[in-house]
Amino acid sequence: MLPETLLCLLNAGIALAQAKQQLPLNSNSQFSPSNPPNPPVFSLPTAANLTITVALCSSTNSPPKFFVTNSSSAGVPGPGGGDDVFEIAVEEGHGSWTGIFDDGGVLAVQDIGQTSFELGISDQGPIHELLSNSDLPLLGDTTSNQALIFSPAFAEEVEPRPTYPNYTLPSANSSQRSAPSGSPNFTLILSPTSSSSPLTALPQTGCMLSSQRSTGTLSSQNFWLRDTKGWRNQWLIEALTPATNYTAYVVQDRTKVSGPIHFVTKSASFACPLVFNLPYCPNVAYTVPLPQPPTTAGSNAYTALNLPDEITKPLLAYLTNFTTTLTTFACGRDWYSPIVGCDDCQREYRKWLCTITFTRCGEPSPANPRSFTSSPAPPDATGLSALHPKDPSAPPQRVFSALLPQSTDIAKARSRTLPAMGSAYAMLLPCLEVCTAVDRACPSLVGFTCPTVQFNAAASYGVGYSDSAEGEQGEGATGAAQDRWGNIWCNGG
């Protein structure tokens, strides 16, 4: 007969094995102080490649510790370690571990305390994730009390290429397609950056951020096919405070976090309204020097529903005529380029035409109110200005946005189809790359050309931001038209 002590140990081991909670595959399990795991030991399913993710849903100075083993002989994993016991490191509220579980495994949690957390078990990639900098939300633009924000692109839209003998291209007045089925569920979380409890100080997890109260009033939300990167969720937020810094996150399906990005609303005197939701100009999502929308429209922004015909009719006529000319070239069977075709040419021309038709408003940074060009640049300028402070401890230079002040008597300086705004504003010049993209994509016989840096490009375009003044791609002063910190140097469309 076995000794009594050994029998007790065997009985305890059997009871623990029977009490283990099985974590389901491809599922997210939630635990809170009111619903703690008892005991905090879990069985893991068999899988050739299993990813275990941890997400903390509450703030704590002493987070729980998570131990995992994929060995059937390791017992309950813990801090004692061993060849087959691993601790899941938790940083910014996230933890992840991937391994082979041919015979299943065990996950144990220690020092839970009053912490809420989630456990994701998947053989299809991580359930919880802090997305990379290439998947950030996108700021459209702001007014004094509004912000237009996009989620990261989540689904590409593949356009059929025209082939011989059918060179059909999208019509000028094209409409948005229906969003793909099964689109993710997106949540926007917005908060003043300088608040006493900033979002960036919290665990950067979907469950934590989704529990926070978001600032502002949601005016509209819809899916939008903005560019070739694919579909995005689009939000118009109102009731914000002028000249205030904000932080924004986008949470996908409550488990994947994108962000943060930062931006500042315009000053209280900023007068340009937002223009967006134009199917024929999907890239336009920014402020434009127009009179305020009519109060009968029931909106504080312009869309395709209330934009004046004197703006849209010439634009659609220009694009129709260009498309007619373009289809006289060999777009399919005898491509003029092994890389691009007439569909690329039309798409880039549409973007350029919309960008120059809808002049973009801007505003100098409150910290640098004189950070703009007071007159059009000379022919040999690069389009950039640099501030060289007298203080030797300060940064050696600062890049200024391509802003040009416009008075009421030259309200149509950029676009001849816009009605007079009736007040002064600052025009944000288009990035030169918007023009050169057309030049690269279109047949040379179309005759589309852009101003050159050596002569007068900087008088009408922002030069040297994304690409260098010599045209080296991505080697400009900023490498992009805008960044995650709310800086917008030129209008990238």
Automatic annotation (TrEMBL):
Pfam families: Mid1. Residues 1-19 form the signal peptide. InterPro entries: MID1/Yam8. GO terms for biological process: calcium ion import across plasma membrane. The keyword Signal applies. Keywords: Signal. GO terms for molecular function: calcium channel activity. Residues 165-184 have a biased composition (Polar residues). Residues 161-184, 364-395 are annotated as: Disordered. This is Uncharacterized protein. It comes from Tricholomella constricta.
